[in-house]
Design brief:
By secondary structure, the protein is of the alpha+beta class. Helix 2 packs across helix 3 and helix 2 runs parallel beside helix 4.
């Protein structure tokens, strides 16, 4: 096919209006031409039946919506010739060109790719026209048509459109480029060049590009679909409907007809207790001074605080999100915590404004829930945090996280807290800076630990003092809704708050190890000295520590051991020798520990050191990769070694039980 005229300059199209009734008249008049144009441009990969129906659907959907006139862009009047519509009324020609442009844009959409996406947009055939039980095909046009269709299938849709517009509509190359550009083709000149390269079937030079009978999707022949498969599908559908009817009838029977569930209500029944739990008026509210006379001081004694405790809309949204968080809610649940709704009306702890958000804190006796939404928005951007608090005592119910950002955290403190301070756990003598509290118990922001695991220049702690008894409790943030309580002492005894000078001194050299416990649902962290060892040379000693993080769920505890020689500088961390998780070691169930480390003396000699807890009756080191091997009948071991030496440490308890680091 010779396409001689080309152009790279496209004039801008003027704007005009097309009346809907006028467009309908033009669509009916030129319906076969528009359907044939859509059929030619649609991807050849479509089956012929679907291609025919899609072509009809696209043309029928080109009609503008509404009853009045539509503002559209119409093209300058083109030269008429060939097979194009007859000239005469210029407005009618513009309407036809408007419809042609819309048909091309819809047909070409199947070969366009969205930006930044590797897939193509599918061509949507629409709901109508709809044919059931029949397959429709255009009449065969002979060998010439088959060869021409094969040639058109080897080029893009834009090239097929250019070929049809020029060879069938009789447009010049300049007019073809304008129409393609209006239809959304990015490079109309390239499409025109590709159309010029289409190779026609041999011996067809004397025939028009598209004769009146080729590719006529309005002259169709019908054939039935697969009758056996259709019959099978009909039987399956009737069986499914019958099953639904039978099950529905059984569910509606009175009496003891519920089967294995006995007297239980059906799955869709409304539960009065669950519905009552979603009503703000049913929330439990504790009076401000009730904690002073309460039989126990935990979260159940917290009063309802905040300036939005009477905002029923906010409270209803918080309860609804807790019961059924939507897909847009950022949900955070502590490990081992059920995210489901409360079984009954929960207790309101707080409802107010904090850092540009509306925050609600709730407690159902076993869990604490924090709901937050951006201030000024009734939906969207909500956050829900749920954490276990079952069995919390006075110290463990001292504070709850009310707001958290990248580097800061704010707490709501218990009503029995009299003072609050922020301390640096890496500084043993740091008494901290006093934190101001608002009237509703909300503290000012505390700085959080840095996120970079390679840096540990500061580790913040929260020091709370209680009223009356003058007790002090130390906490740290490990990424949960409740801060982790810090304690010290042997696991065989009741742990003490890590507020003494000795306990703070141990924390100052081990607090950076807390990073391994972040996000683990840790309830409390206890640091325990299980051995003291005189180092080779007799000038210095070392302390062996085991740090255990207990979780709210009871299992999954995390531990790490460390080796702290005397004379460490201020803020310098001990050597962390082992880590383990979900183990009873260093706890009340198994108060034993053993660990080892490679140490270099001041004289430049290397040693493999090991030590065990009180009931260890022997330690053995098994060298690996040339490392030293040896044993000791006591609970301490020192072997001369080389730099980089490795050895496996094991111990034997007095009862003969074997003990390894972290077990």
């Amino acid at each position: 096919m010779a396409l001689s005229e080309t152009t790279s300059q496209h004039s801008r199209t003027p704007s005009g209006s097309v009346d809907v009734e006028q467009a309908q008249a033009a669509l009916v008049e030129h319906y076969p031409r528009l359907v044939r144009l859509a059929y030619l441009v649609l991807p050849p990969s479509l089956a012929r039946h679907r291609r025919v129906l899609t072509a009809h659907s696209l043309v029928q959907r080109t009609l503008p919506r509404g009853r009045g006139s539509a503002e559209v862009k119409v093209l300058p009047a083109q030269r008429r010739g060939g097979h194009g519509p007859a000239g005469g009324d210029a407005t009618g020609a513009d309407v036809y060109e408007f419809l042609t442009t819309r048909v091309l844009r819809a047909a070409l959409s199947g070969e366009r790719r969205p930006r930044l996406a590797p897939w193509r947009l599918p061509v949507r055939p629409g709901l109508f026209p709809l044919v059931l039980g029949l397959q429709l095909f255009p009449r065969s046009g002979g060998a010439y048509e088959l060869a021409l269709e094969k040639a058109l299938s080897e080029v893009s849709g834009a090239a097929r459109a250019a070929c049809a517009l020029r060879g069938w509509e009789g447009m010049t190359d300049a007019e073809v480029c304008r129409v393609l550009e209006a239809a959304g083709v990015q490079e109309p000149a390239e499409a025109l060049a590709a159309a010029s390269g289409i190779r026609l079937p041999a011996g067809s030079n004397d025939k028009p590009v598209l004769g009146p009978s080729e590719f006529d999707p309005c002259s169709l022949q019908a054939r039935p679909t697969d009758l056996l498969r259709r019959r099978q599908h009909l039987r399956a559908a009737l069986s499914a409907v019958a099953a639904v009817v039978v099950c529905g009838g059984l569910l509606g029977l009175p009496g003891d007809s519920w089967g294995p569930d006995g007297a239980a209500a059906p799955l869709y029944a409304r539960n009065p207790a669950a519905e009552k739990a979603l009503e703000p008026a049913s929330l439990t509210r504790v009076a401000a001074g009730a904690w002073k006379d309460a039989s126990r001081t935990d979260f159940s004694a917290w009063p309802a605080r905040g300036d939005l405790t009477d905002d029923d809309g906010l409270l209803r949204r918080a309860l609804a999100v807790w019961a059924r968080p939507g897909g847009k809610v950022r949900l955070s649940v502590t490990q081992g915590t059920s995210p489901g709704p409360p079984s009954g009306p929960p207790q309101l702890l707080y409802a107010g404004r904090v850092d540009g958000a509306k925050v609600v804190l709730l407690h159902d006796g076993l869990r604490a829930a924090r709901y937050a939404e951006p201030e000024g928005a009734d939906s969207g951007g909500a956050v829900l945090d749920v954490a276990r608090t079952d069995g919390a005592d006075t110290a463990e119910s001292g504070a709850l996280v009310i707001s958290r950002s990248d580097s800061n955290v704010r707490y709501l403190t218990a009503p029995w807290v009299s003072k609050a301070a922020e301390v640096d756990l890496l500084q043993s003598d740091d008494e901290g800076r006093s934190l101001n509290r608002e009237d509703d118990g909300v503290l000012v922001s505390l700085t959080g630990p840095g996120r970079d695991p390679r840096e540990c220049n500061r580790w913040p702690g929260l020091l709370l003092s209680t009223r009356g008894k003058s007790k002090r409790h130390l906490y740290t943030d490990l990424g949960e809704l409740t801060p982790a309580r810090l304690t010290s002492g042997s696991p065989t005894k009741k742990p003490r708050d890590a507020t003494s000078a000795t306990a703070r001194g141990r924390l100052a050299h081990t607090a950076c190890g807390f990073r391994s416990m972040v996000g683990g649902g840790v309830r409390s962290v206890n640091t325990w000295k299980f051995a003291t060892q005189l180092l080779p040379g007799g000038m210095r000693s070392a302390t062996w520590l085991c740090t255990r993080g207990e979780t709210w769920r009871g299992n999954g505890a995390r531990i790490f051991t460390s080796f702290r020689r005397s004379g460490l500088k201020r803020g310098e961390q001990a050597v962390f020798t082992s880590r383990a998780s979900d183990t009873p070691a260093c706890g009340p169930r198994r108060p034993h520990a053993v660990s080892g480390a490679l140490w270099k003396s001041d004289a430049g000699n290397w040693y493999v050191l090991a030590a065990g807890s009180r009931k260890v009756a022997g330690i053995r080191a098994t060298g690996k990769s040339g490392g030293p091997s040896g044993s000791s009948p006591g609970r301490k071991l020192a072997l001369l070694a080389k730099k980089g030496a490795e050895a496996k440490i094991s111990a034997r308890l007095a009862n003969g039980e074997k003990l390894e680091p972290g077990h």
